[in-house]
Write a structure and sequence with these properties.
The protein is an alpha+beta fold. It is about 25% helix and about 20% strand. The structure holds zinc ion.
Length: about 270
């Protein structure tokens, strides 16, 4: 599942390739946009909001996409082979003279007036990767989490309405680094003064640290197989104490994700 930093990096790369240029190809392969044609229109910019990607196109159009579990955007130079997946998984192709961008397996892909963006992202909590996160958005994120006090912290952190940008990997890693079990309620976490705020700060630091690169590393160790503390490591020994890392599904039906934790380090 893509995390906020993955989307942020995708948006930055798309922005660098497309912003200020006119589209020379527009090929939508989803039924609802089959007749849309953006050729000749200029791309104003591409930005990420939580896990949503917004491509703004003149005069007042936004191409909104969400990657969900395995969608992705790829950039290719003209005349290079596409490598993001089989052709039938392509949902959209947009090109400027020197770049072709291809969206694969995008479960959400829609055009809307830029002035209506709030309809698709207005529900989101503060974006952990926003430049203006400090200090007000930080307070707002903690406020929204506290308002969700009865829920397990592992669920509350993943809910993009509380705070936007945390996916499954950072959820597991932030909780490990905080020494908190994903099954504790938000209220229990908050009973220790400052703990909830530190958790939000930690999530932002991890996302920022990884935002500029394709790798997602929380251990400081870039070597393959060593990049995370507990995420993806069910049944393996905890890097800190040697206890076997546990894994279990967490969340309401249809929203369940596997979470990982060390029962000793995260009692
Ligand atoms: Zn441990």
């Amino acid at each position: 599942m893509p995390e906020g930093d993955t989307i942020w990096l995708a948006a930055r790369n798309l922005h660098t390739a497309l912003a200020g240029k006119s589209l020379v190809r527009s090929d939508f392969r989803v039924p609802q946009l089959a007749t849309a044609d953006l050729v000749g229109r200029r791309v104003l910019g591409v930005t990420a909001r939580g896990k949503h990607l917004l491509m703004r196109i003149e005069p007042d159009l936004t191409l909104h996409s969400h990657l969900r579990m395995d969608g992705s955007w790829h950039l290719y130079r003209p005349d290079t082979a596409w490598a993001g997946g089989p052709e039938f998984e392509v949902r959209v192709v947009l090109a400027v003279v020197d770049w072709t961008c291809v969206g694969y397996r995008l479960p959400v892909l829609e055009l809307l007036p830029t002035s209506d963006e709030h309809l698709v992202i207005g529900h989101l909590g503060p974006d952990l990767l926003a430049d203006d996160f400090e200090p007000l958005q930080r307070l707002e994120a903690a406020r929204r989490l506290r308002a969700d006090g009865a829920r397990p912290i592992g669920e509350a952190l993943l809910d993009q309405r509380n705070v936007a940008g945390i996916g499954n990997l950072y959820r597991a890693e932030v909780l490990f680094l905080s020494g908190v079990s994903p099954w504790r309620t938000v209220d229990e976490v908050d009973s220790l003064p400052g703990q909830l705020d530190r958790m939000v700060d930690r999530a932002r630091r991890l996302l920022l640290a990884n935002a500029g690169r394709a790798a997602q590393v929380t251990t400081g160790d870039l070597r393959p197989g060593r990049t995370t503390w507990v995420y993806g490591r069910g049944g393996q020994p905890c890097r800190r104490c040697g206890t076997r890392v546990k894994q279990a599904e967490q969340g309401a039906p249809a929203y369940t994700r596997i979470t990982y934790w060390c029962p000793s380090c995260q009692p």
